[in-house]
Amino acid sequence: MNPHTPRFQSRHASTPFNSTPDAFQLRPDVASYGQLPSTLSGDGPLWNRFWSTPRESAEEERAVCDELGAVLAKVGARRMVIGHTIQERGMATRCGGGLHLIDVGVSGKYLGRPAAWACEEGVVTATYEDRVEVLDDGVEEEEGSSE
Q1: Would you say 108 and 120 are in contact if contact means Cβ atoms under 8 Å apart?
Q2: Model pTM score
Q3: Contact 121, 145 (CB under 8 A)
Q4: Average pLDDT, stretch 30-44?
Q5: Confidence band (pLDDT; 50, 70, 90) for 4?
Q6: Engineering a disulfide at 83: which of 20, 70, 103, 140 sits with its beta carbon 3.0 to 4.6 angstroms away?
Q7: Are 91 and 135 in contact (CB under 8 A)?
């Protein structure tokens, strides 16, 4: 595949892309235009809030999780990790651990709360100044499990 031919097009973003680095490479001339390229715009793949927006109903949440599952399957990933939407209560997961929301407002301009997300040998943790939380223990549930 030609590295300049995008493989993915989300209905939630205006610009197709292969990966996050590709999004930057699609428009390396950002400074010369004096405006943001579509990959960096509010509806581009890097700033889109579709995945982090809370849903009002279980049906809406299922639809988001189904779409997330399709994206993860297409790229061969187990989870999507995103920032840009502050989680005031700390890092969170949705969609059975398939979506990790990790923006906790580290900057003093926001909440000023230092934190770090880590994935080591499949175990995902959120480390804060006063505690460490396990977000994903790395154990995949079997289908039909009722825990």
Answers
A1: no
A2: 0.67
A3: no
A4: 60
A5: very low
A6: 103
A7: yes
- Round to whole Å and give the CA distance between 119 and 147: 23
Give the sheet arrangement for strand 123-128, strand by strand.
115-120, 123-128, 132-136
Strand, helix or coil at 36?
A: coil
Amino acid (1-letter code) at residue 89: R
Both structure tokens of 32: 């010369």
Q: Which residue has the tokens 């509010």?
A: 42
Q: Among all chains, which residue has been given the structure tokens 């580290």? A: 106
Question: Which residues are within 8 A (CB) of 131 and not within 5 positions of it... i.e. 6 or more apart?
Answer: none
Classify each residue of 93-103 as buried b or exposed e, where b means 16 or more C-beta atoms within 10 Å of its C-beta: bbbebbbbbbb
How are beta strands 99-101 and 80-82 bridged, if at all? Answer: parallel
Above 50 in pLDDT, residue 24? no
What does the alpha-carbon distance between residue 72 and residue 23 come to, in Å, rounded to a whole number? Answer: 18
Which residues lie below 8 Å from residue 1, measured CB to CB, with a gap of 6+? 7
Q: What confidence tens digit (pLDDT) does each residue in 112-130 have?
A: 788 999 999 989 999 998 9
Please name every residue paired with 127 in a beta bridge, in sequence order, or none if there are none.
116, 132
Question: Alpha-carbon distance 52 to 85, whole Å?
Answer: 7
β partners of residue 116: 127
